Amino acid sequence: LAIGTSGLVVADYQVPGPVRTFELMRLAITTSGGRQYLGAQSLSGGGAMEPVIGPITSGGLQFIYRDVNGAITTVPSAVRTIDLKVYSETSRPVTTLGGGVGALLSDSLALRIRVRNAR
C-alpha cells in the first residue's frame, strides 16, 4: 500500500508491522571549490547536488561489477557483487611530526558489496 503525505494524519493509520520508506537519490562526481567530491542529490525531495565524500583524486571513484563467478561483467542482470574503490586526499596540506613541508595526504577505501536478493 502506498500513501501520499498530503492530508496524512499519522494517528489515522495503524500498521501491524514496521513501516519502510525510501528516497530516490543520485550519486555523482561534483566539483566544489575547484576540487572533486562524491556528491548526493535527493530526487524525491529535490535540492542541489551536495558534496558528501572527498575531496577525491582524479579517477578517485571506481565501480567494478562482478558476476556469480567473480568475473567482471557489463550485463546488469548478471551483477552479483560490486567492488567500490574511493581514493581521497586531505582538503588542506598537512605538516608531519618531523616538521616536513605541508603536503596533501591521500588514503583509500575498498568495499565489496553483495547485491541484495540476487539469485
What proportion strand?
A: 35-45%
Characterize the largest beta sheet: strand count, sense, and whether it forms a barrel.
Answer: 5 strands, antiparallel
Alpha-beta content class: mainly beta
Q: What Rg is obtained from the alpha carbons, in whole angstroms?
A: 21 Å
Number of DSSP E strands: 5
Spans of at least 5 consecutive residues with low confidence: none
> SSE order, as H and E?
EEEEE
Number of helical segments with 4 or more residues: 0
Q: What is the percent of helical residues?
A: under 10%
How many angstroms does the end-to-end distance come to? 26 Å
Give the assembly state of these chains.
Answer: single chain
- Characterize the overall form: extended
- How is the largest sheet built, in terms of strand order? 1-2-3-4-5
Mean pLDDT: 84
